[in-house]
Each structure stands twice: as C-alpha cells, then as structure tokens.
Amino acid sequence: MSRTFQPLQVVGYIATRRDDAERGPLVRVRPDDARMRTIDDGELVWVYGPRRHELAPVVYDETLPRGGVVVRDLAGVAITEIVRLVKMDIEHRPVLTTHFA
Questions:
Q1: What is the separation, in whole angstroms, between the first and last Cα of the chain?
Q2: Is the CB of residue 55 less than 8 Å from the CB of residue 88?
Q3: Does pTM surpass 0.85?
Q4: Model pLDDT, residue 88
Q5: Are 44 and 62 in contact (CB under 8 A)?
Q6: How far apart are CA 45 and CA 35, in angstroms?
C-alpha cells in the first residue's frame, strides 16, 4: 500500500454549534504525518471514514500523537475510528460537456 493512503486514527472530535465563530469541516494532523502523505497546511482533502467521505481543509497541529487526527464537524466519523486522507485531484478530474440539440 502506498504511504500516501496509510490510515490515521481519530483521537478527537470537535462538534460546533450554529453560533460558534469557527465552524465547519476541518482536519488537524501532525505536520510529519501530512508531509508523508504530501498534504500541505490549508490544503483541501477527502476524508474517507468507515461510512462516508467528505471534503475538509487540513491544519497542522504538532501537539497530536503520531498517526492521530482531530476532526471537526465531519459526519460519519467518531473517535477511535480509522480514516484516510486523500488529496483532492483537481488537475485530473473529468471534463463535463453539455450537448444541446
């Protein structure tokens, strides 16, 4: 298996409320874990969990244990579950064409 798809364990979950200043999907990851997966700070990634996948920006956090992530407002992910971070590939996405009669 490629090093870029190695699993990470959710070690924390942040659920926000409607009136919170900072809210929305987010993934906190150690810089060395992110670099091993060629993910930059602030980059948008797919977070693949056991039930679904969602897009979320990445924020580096050196206080996390190696192999652990903290997620915020990601449905379908809970503490102790395993996730994979996959870079969003916007350069090789299919081109949609519309044909009109």
A1: 46
A2: yes
A3: no
A4: 78
A5: no
A6: 13
